[in-house]
Each structure stands twice: as structure tokens, then as C-alpha cells.
Write a structure and sequence with these properties.
about 375 residues, alpha/beta, Rossmann fold, 2 domains, 7-stranded parallel β-sheet, 6-stranded parallel β-sheet, elongated
Length: about 375
């Protein structure tokens, strides 16, 4: 049996979906089936440079979203027939798929919750086309129960959806001793410690960067603590709103926006930080929280989306809409010279390290390919 993994729509590995593809194939144990990746020729060595048991089928097209969508609508089915795939896994979900019938069984990974119907012609068409694709897919993988619930609410039969949690790359995200100097060096930055880290793309208002900046300002003004706030994430829509909020903040000199940080380098930022805070309310997966836990630092996150499911008993939860609540959460977990939070910090750190043992990429990879092959054997 030959299974293809579609690496289109992964932003050349610089996205959560790209990290998913890399982790899935690089933690794949020996199985009796053949697995290969297909995607942009530019990405030939992005996912498989260190492994020789997964082939890569490079496709030379323009590096644009339009070109990728056009290729899927005009060439996808013929390509799948030519490569003799028995099934195809789409980690990027429905965005690139044609509405026409698939020439081979297709499995979708839905990494985000399905939004309620938008009151527009585009929203109606998007919902209609997605519904057709969901109906024609052989199986659907949801990394969280929260995403599965949104799919069921969108009309997808629950017996067509399998929850398989994403894993954590413990080769990268793990506790380690760090240099106890006052500066965390991560080129091109030298970040003065202590600092609080929020790793998330600067985009939708629901990421709550603005509320976090305001909550951090309150924390600083109440405590006069030496902490800084480090926001690590690529720019997206509404980034200018966040930048303006930083400039208007009375503690703007203590706020650093790093831009995009490679996934592998995030661990260095986590390990040297005082705590990780995550106020987003639109997370379907929430990997940054458990990756921070795996690095041995305490975490605080929003009591919304998939985060209560993903972080479980091991994180401190707060209302992300309320800057005062964000400030209070920081005060519970930040290190102070009088040691007043040391016991709680230690307790939450230990809980986090225990909790993340359940997230394992090898287990995720095995469950994913078992699910695909089990369904194929019953067709």
C-alpha cells in the first residue's frame, strides 16, 4: 500500500502544518506500507533531509497560493493516478482540494475549528464547497475534541472523524540547564531576563495581543517587576494594531516583538523565559502551550478554545478578555525576589512535565497510519 502526504499549503515548513508534516514523517516507525510526500520542488529537502525511507515527489509550479490551487483543480487526480497512491493525506485540510470527485481515497487533517457560517456570498460558497469535500473524504482527523465538536456542528457525521492528538518533539522541547547570566542570546537578539513569552502569529484580534500588552502594563505598574514581554510570531492581518498598542504602552521599552522564529529555536526562548502566557481564544490545537510545558516552565493560558483540553490540569487559566485577569495570572506565576510564588511555580512546572508525557509524535504517527490503513482495508 502506498500513501501520499500532500505538503502543499504548508508555507515551506514555516507553519504549524509544516511542523506537523515534518514531525509525522520523521517519527514514523517501520511500517509495511510505502509513504511518500509530494509538494513544491522548493521543499524537496524541507521534510525529508534526514531520512531515506520517505520519498519526495517535487512539483515545479509558481510559488503562489493561486498556482497551488489551480494545480489541485487541474492536475491532482491525474498525478495521484500516475504515482499509484492508494490514498492521500491532506494535512492542510480542505483549502487546496478540488470539488470534483477524487480519483483515490482522501484523508483530511483539520487543524482549526470550523467557523460558523459567514453572512456573505463567499462564506456561503466556502461552506458549501467544504461540505462537499468533507462528504467525499474517506476519513477526517481532528487533533482535538474541540475541533471534532466544531465539525459535528457543521454537519459532519461523528463516525467519520477520528481524534488523534498531535505530539511534541522532545528532542527539541525538553528541560535543560541554561547559562544563568542576565541575557538570553538568540541571534539576532540578546534578550534581557527575566521575560514572559507569547509565541503566536500576530494576526486575528482573537489572539488577544492587545489585551496581553495591556495586562502586562498593569502587572509592571503594580509590581515594578523587572520582567519584559517577548512576543514571537510572524506578522499577519491587524499587526499594525498590535504595533500601535506597543508604542502607546507606558512600558513599551520592556516589550519586544521578534517576528517569525523558527520552530526549532522557540525552545531556546522557552527555556530561558520565566513563564509562557497564551491568551488566544481561537486555538484548535494549542501546541505552543504544551511545548513550553515540556521545556520545564510554568504556563498560563486562556480558558477558551481547545486550551482547557490540551493543557488540562497543568496550566493556570485566566479570562483573556480582561487585562486585569491577565495581570493577575502573571502575578501568580512570575518570579519575585521574595520567593512568594516559588512553590506555585514549582507545582505547575511539575504538573506540566507530567502532563506532556501523553503527547508523543511516534504515537501520533502510528495512530494516523493505522487509521488510514484500517479504513482502506474496509472499503
Amino acid at each position: 500500500m502506498k500513501i501520499g502526504i500532500n505538503a502543499f499549503g504548508c508555507k515551506h515548513g514555516r507553519s504549524g502544518i509544516g511542523a506537523y508534516v515534518y514531525s509525522l514523517v520523521n517519527n514514523l516507525p517501520e511500517i509495511e506500507h510505502e509513504v511518500s510526500i509530494f509538494g513544491p520542488e522548493l521543499d524537496r529537502y524541507t521534510y525529508t533531509s534526514d531520512i531515506d525511507y520517505v520519498a519526495y515527489e517535487g512539483i515545479s509550479i509558481d510559488d503562489t497560493e493561486f498556482a497551488e490551487k489551480l494545480w489541485h483543480k487541474t492536475h491532482f487526480n491525474a498525478f495521484v493516478q500516475k504515482t499509484k497512491y492508494d490514498a492521500v493525506l491532506f494535512p492542510a485540510g480542505t483549502g487546496l482540494l478540488p470539488i470534483a470527485n477524487f480519483s483515490k481515497p482522501v484523508f483530511l487533517v483539520i487543524q482549526e475549528p470550523i467557523e460558523p457560517e459567514k453572512k456573505s456570498l463567499f462564506g456561503f460558497f466556502s461552506k458549501f464547497s467544504n461540505k462537499m469535500i468533507f462528504e467525499k473524504a474517506t476519513g477526517i482527523i481532528a487533533p482535538t475534541k474541540y475541533i471534532k465538536k466544531s465539525l459535528i456542528e457543521a454537519g459532519i457525521p461523528k463516525n467519520k472523524i477520528k481524534v488523534i492528538h498531535n505530539g511534541i518533539n522532545t528532542d527539541i522541547f525538553h528541560p535543560r540547564k541554561i547559562n544563568e547570566n542576565e541575557v538570553a542570546l538568540m541571534e539576532p537578539f540578546a534578550i534581557r531576563r527575566p521575560y514572559i513569552i507569547y509565541a503566536s502569529r500576530i494576526s486575528e484580534p482573537e489572539k488577544h495581543h492587545v489585551e496581553l500588552i495591556r495586562g502586562f502594563s498593569i502587572f509592571k505598574q503594580k509590581t515594578n517587576a523587572p520582567h519584559r514581554l517577548v512576543i514571537a510570531g510572524a506578522e499577519g492581518e491587524n499587526a499594525d494594531i498590535v504595533y500601535n498598542e506597543v508604542m502607546d504602552s507606558p512600558v513599551s521599552s520592556d516589550i519586544l516583538l521578534t517576528g517569525y522564529i523558527e520552530h526549532e529555536k522557540l525552545a531556546n526562548l522557552y527555556v530561558a523565559s520565566d513563564l509562557c502566557i497564551f491568551p488566544s481564544t481561537i486555538e484548535g490545537v494549542g501546541l505552543p502551550v504544551i511545548e513550553a510545558m515540556a521545556c520545564g516552565i510554568p504556563t498560563a493560558c486562556a480558558n477558551a478554545g481547545a486550551l482547557p483540553e490540551i493543557a488540562g490540569y497543568a496550566s493556570h487559566f485566566f479570562d483573556p478578555e480582561n487585562p486585569e485577569a491577565i495581570s493577575a495570572a502573571i502575578m501568580e506565576l512570575a518570579t519575585f525576589s521574595d520567593g512568594s510564588t516559588d512553590d506555585y511555580r514549582q507545582k505547575m512546572t511539575e504538573k506540566g512535565l507530567e502532563w506532556v508525557k501523553k503527547y508523543n509524535w511516534t504515537k501520533t504517527s502510528i495512530q494516523t497510519f493505522d487509521y488510514i490503513t484500517d479504513l482502506l482495508s474496509n472499503l
